[in-house]
Amino acid sequence: MADLRVIVDGISLEANWTGDAPETRDALEGALPVAGEAVRWGDELYFDVPVDVPAENAREAVPEGAIAYWPPGNKLCLFWGPTPASVDDEPRAASPVTVVARVTDTDPLEAVDGGARVGIERFP
Hints:
Elements: E1 4-8, E2 11-17, H1 22-31, E3 34-40, E4 44-48, E5 59-61, E6 66-70, E7 75-79, E8 92-103, E9 116-122
Antiparallel strand pairs: 1-2, 1-9, 2-8, 3-4, 3-9, 4-7, 5-8, 6-7, 6-8
Protein name: Cyclophilin TM1367-like domain-containing protein
Domain Cyclophilin TM1367-like: 4-120
Pfam families: Cyclophil_like
C-alpha cells in the first residue's frame, strides 16, 4: 500500500516514504497536502513547500523516482531521469538534497512537457 499520492498535471502516481530522513519526513508530513507550479530542470520538477528544515543525509545523486527536499530553497523535487548536472543517466540534483520518498512508477512522467502543477498528499 502506498503512503503518498503524487499528482503531476493530472497524472496520479503512488509513492512511499523512505527511512533516510525522519526529521525531514515529519516536517513534510505535517505540511501535507502541498502543491505548486513546478519548474522543470531536465527530468526533475521542483516547487516551493512550506517546510524549513536543515539537510539530513543529503546527497546529489538520487535514485529514479526520488522525492527530495532541497533545503537552500525550501523546494520539493521529483526526479525521474537525468538533469543537466547528471553523470550518464543518473538523476542528480544541482546541490545536495534530502530524499524523503520514492515514486513507485516513473514511466508516466515521460509525458510531462515543460513545467507542471505538482501536488503531494497522503494516500487515502
